[in-house]
Amino acid sequence: MTAFAGALAGIVLWAPHGKGGLLDGFEGTSNWNVLWVGLPLMILGGIAAALAVFFLVRRDWKRALGCVAAIGVLFALGVAVDALAGAPRPECYDPC
Fold first, then answer.
1. Running DSSP on this structure, what letter comes out for residue 32?
2. What distance in Å separates the CA atoms of residue 31 and residue 36, rounded to the nearest whole number?
3. 9 and 43 in contact (C-beta within 8 Å)?
4. What angle is formed at CA 53 by the lines to CA 52 and CA 56, rounded to 5 degrees?
5. What is the pLDDT along the chain (96 residues), one digit of tens a residue?
6. What is the C-alpha to C-alpha distance for residues 65 and 59, in angstroms, rounded to an integer?
């Protein structure tokens, strides 16, 4: 149940960014990397965060530390993927 709640929290936190990337892309194009890369990272991060809290409550420090390390790795992967995607495109407003 804890992992499921963490996965749902990851999806909820991803949704505003995902909607912007899929529907409001540059000149009407969709950025599918938001779905294929961002969503799994957020789901895994949510699961790891929920399990870290669960293990902290149960005073299982080694497993909690492992989950925190997993969160750090997922964060680093997200930053690396974002950096490899290149600079963001400039926003274009009227007159364009």
1. T
2. 10
3. no
4. 85
5. 988 999 998 888 877 776 666 666 555 566 666 777 778 888 898 999 999 999 999 999 999 999 999 999 998 988 887 777 666 666 666 555
6. 11
| pLDDT value of position 64 | 93
Angle made by CA atoms 77, 2, 71, in degrees to the nearest 5: 20
Q: Can you read off the two tokens belonging to residue 86? A: 């290149």
Biggest CA–CA distance in the chain, Å, is 59
| Cβ atoms < 10 Å from Cβ of 52 | 21
Q: At what angle do helices 2-23 and 39-57 cross, to 10 degrees?
A: 150
pLDDT in the model for residue 39: 83
Distance of CA 6 to the CA centre of its chain: 12
Q: Which pair of structure tokens corresponds to residue 18?
A: 């995902």
User: Sign of dihedral through CA atoms 19, 24, 30, 34?
Assistant: negative
